[in-house]
Request: fold
Amino acid sequence: MTAESSGLMEPMLPAIGNKELEDLAMELAKKSSALAGTMPPAVRESIGNLVRSMNCYYSNLIEGHDTHPRDIDKALAGDFSKDPTKRNLQFEAKAHIEVQRLIDSGDAPAIKPSSEFMRWAHNEFCSRLPDELLWVENPDTGERIKVRPGEFRLREVAVGQHIPPRAENLDRFMKRFEEAYDPAHLSQVQQVIAIAASHHRLVWIHPFLDGNGRVVRLFSHAWLLETGIGSSLWSVSRGLARHVEEYKARLMAADAPRKGDLDGRGNLSHAELVSFCRFFLQTAVDQVVFMSDLLDSTTFITRMSIHIQEEVALKRLPKGSFELLREAWVAGEFKRGQAAAITGYKERAARDVLTTLLEKGYLVSDNKLAPVRLGFPADAVDRWLPRLYPAA
Reply:
């Protein structure tokens, strides 16, 4: 048995007092709080469902899996492709969304930097995948190895030039991970910086045979949510995916050993850890700003109006549609019986407009008697929320 010291991954945090990182952490908290306070809860719920799918799309993209948003929507509706490759990607996307929904709804175990949470996230994700997605191949020998949901790896791996800790030492490294990032010992600003630092250190440990990147991003999302800074309205994964080469390069750079007496006192480079944290926090701030601009009420309503006018002119939607959709955006939700007053139509005509919007997914409801709220069908997303996804 090789007893590797957990000191191999020190330092775990940038030195306290780094003003640039602290300012970024506070800016992220301020901008995220402002975004969350701009809209009614029912609208936040609808956007949250959309952003959850978007988060999945970009997380898949980082893994090199390009799953079209329409295919993700079909998967959520139980409509899977007959093509095996596309169907497997749909299963993967659906699994990611379901695990994030558990996190967002508070149905995950205590969200903290712990082996328990990582095992839970890995198990919940992998147990939803078909068997053929639970195998990895040793590139040197061609051996196929089964991935066990929720179980730390039992063999050694290499990730590019990086050799993660031996399997027999994973518990030791995860224990140090839990101690270093224990929220009870960190101020809120330090916690935000720790979210960035732990993102790299968990990748460095590489506790699972496969699925580490996805677990790390789910964990970062969960911890941001736990601090009250993250929300269902924005996703750091979008920013990481849009700068994926830099993301991977900075992860790799933070694997580097200490570069002399001026580079901290740990085994790994303090300067590169600071650089990764800066990149991660700047990316998060950029995504909050992007979504804040995209969800500005005045410009959103203008984009919606132009789109719905075109749909009505093409006879794909009935007149009166915009009035109901605008009400759902402004008020968050409304009772079905209010449709006539909102449109100015007679009861039956208003009900027909409402029914059409529900059938096409522009409005959604929990049941046939419940209030309705705004939906985001695939046909509308590109028009209402341009640049949310890459251009086709």
